[in-house]
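anyone seen this seq b4? input:
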Amino acid sequence: MQRRTLVRSTVASAIAGALALPGWAQDKWPSKPLTYIVPFPAGGTTDILGRLIGQKLGPVLGTTILVDNRGGAGGSIGSELASRAPADGYTLLGGTVSSHAINISLYPKIGYDPIKSFTPVALIGTNPVVLIVGQNSPYKTLQDVLAAAKAKPKTISSASAGSGTSQHLALELLGFKSGTQFIHVPYKGSGPAIQDVIGGQVDMMFDTTVVAGPHIQSGKVRALAVTSAKRLESLPNVPTVAESGVPGFEVLSWQAIFAPAGTPKPLVDRLHTEIVKILQQSEMQERLITLGMQPSTMAMDQFAAFQKAEVEKWAQVIKAANVKLE
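predicted toks r here
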């Protein structure tokens, strides 16, 4: 009788201990720094936002956020790396409209599925793209650009952060809707691309207001048009592409945070909660708005639905415009 009672007690203790392990592991998380993979070089929108959020998220979690820039292939290289990382809560990815909505339809093969390979953590926000030229450019308006492109097709060059990025697709959509042709010049990120626009090596570029804004304010580049449906409060004198003679044109870029698929839900929930708190801070809200971004208020399930809709939207655009990689 005593032996039977002892066995039952031992089994019960073992089960209780096993059930307590997940909670114990979560209580210990994080016990080391988190890696925030940015699938673009330093200086671009994703990098700027990753560092802003990482600086605030680290202290809240009681650890350090290490930003790891892995640029190339429109965000695909870094995204594939993140998709193969252990799903243990120690890897985050700065995903974008290109890496997580466009590339799956543009590249013949990428090493991840933008939906199945990741767990959505938080949508940081959306922001329109602005068409810019160097300060010494002869083009004063988008109409000037289109007139020149129609007179001499494939003579005007346009930089981008890489093939398949929102900058690239905005250019392709502009060419498709206006009946013009341009030379696409892909870079490994917005940083080096915009420097060549400033230097005059490339004629123009579509880029997010996060990256282009400071250069517009300094006078190093000139804004010709924004890709939103309405003019921006931050650039009230810059017309939309639609106003400039290309009706129905609209392109929005977006920035988000993902974790590898299979990351424990309690950890994802914690990350989502803390990141949303950071994004809701008045200081961060003002910073995002100053950068031309519209902060997001989406819950995780809403973000997941939004991403799926974006994947379908860009698949249709790429097919209709017959976009091909160089």
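Residues 178 and 246 are 6 Å apart (CA to CA). Residues 2-28 form the longest helix (27 residues). kinda curious what u guys think
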